[in-house]
Specification:
Keywords: ATP-binding, Nucleotide-binding. It comes from Asticcacaulis benevestitus DSM 16100 = ATCC BAA-896. This is Transporter. By secondary structure, this protein is of the alpha/beta class. The protein has a domain of 174 residues: Rossmann fold, CATH 3.40.50.300. 37% of the residues lie in helices and 29% in strands. The strands form three sheets. A six-stranded mixed beta sheet has the order 6-9-10-3-11-12, with helices on both faces. Strand 11 and strand 12 form a beta hairpin.
Length: 249
């Protein structure tokens, strides 16, 4: 589903990713773990098409198509979704308006009929209930004054509504208490499907107690230095990343 070959990425003329290769098949959840500055978020931003993230070399195919041939909005319409470590606040734009606009924009790009207001509200109410989101919250400006848990639940609501083919979750557990982590993780797990892939970016093993990965990859200094099963996350929690720093160098 997602195939990355020898990807090198620079940010403000500084090379961050240095020949990274990774394959995530449909139906699997892969976790990327690594220390601060390893390039985890850079990978997510580069795949999503954030400006100033310069692709120096390498290739990425998504469902058999060249991802870098697509503009940002085309990547989203193709089914690529990036959740943010710190979701942005958008004053003056009600959350409901944002959600319906995003959904219909993607439908238009795919040549599909837009969703009607009644059908949209029915679907949002169903999803909001499972994520413990009050409908009054959705009438407020997007993420303005939201707690960390509310912002992350809002992102999961967006994912469930947009139904992307591939999720990139960047530090989804950041700022969450135990209860909020369970609600958000349950929402993410509900999106697991045979035709959907996920890449979970995290520092800590605790998120992977809730979102069980099929594979774990260690990213250090812009390169994946080791891959393994879920047990690799437990090893990292016990011993840290120091053992891999020499390999990255």
């Amino acid at each position: 589903m997602l195939s990355i070959k020898d990807l090198s990425v620079a940010v403000d003329a500084k090379q961050i990713l240095k020949g990274l290769s990774l394959d995530v098949p449909a139906g699997e959840v892969h976790a990327i773990m690594g220390p601060n500055g390893a390039g985890k978020s850079t990978l997510g931003y580069a795949l999503a098409g954030r400006p100033n993230y310069q692709i120096k070399s390498g290739s990425v195919t998504f469902n058999g198509e060249d991802l870098f041939e697509k503009d940002v909005h085309e990547r989203a319409a193709a089914g690529l979704y990036l959740s943010f470590q710190y979701p942005l606040e958008i004053p003056g734009v009600p959350a409901l308006t944002f959600l319906r606009t995003a959904l219909n924009a993607q439908k238009k790009l795919r040549g599909e009929d837009e969703i009607s207001a009644p059908d949209f509200l029915k679907r949002v109410r169903e999803l909001a209930k499972t994520l413990k989101i009050d409908m009054d919250m959705l009438k407020r400006p997007l993420n303005v004054g939201f707690s960390g848990g509310e912002k992350k639940r809002m992102e999961v609501l967006q994912m469930a509504l947009l139904e992307p083919k591939f999720l990139i979750l960047d530090e989804t557990d950041s700022g969450l208490d135990i209860d909020a982590l369970k609600v958000v993780s349950d929402g993410v797990n509900a999106l697991r499907a045979p035709d959907r892939g996920m890449l979970v970016i995290t520092h800590y093993q605790r998120l992977l107690d809730h979102i069980k990965p099929d594979r774990v990859h260690v990213l250090v200094a812009g390169r994946i230095v080791r891959s393994g099963g879920p047990e690799l996350a437990l090893e990292l929690e016990a011993h840290g990343y120091d053992q891999y720093l020499g390999e990255a160098a």
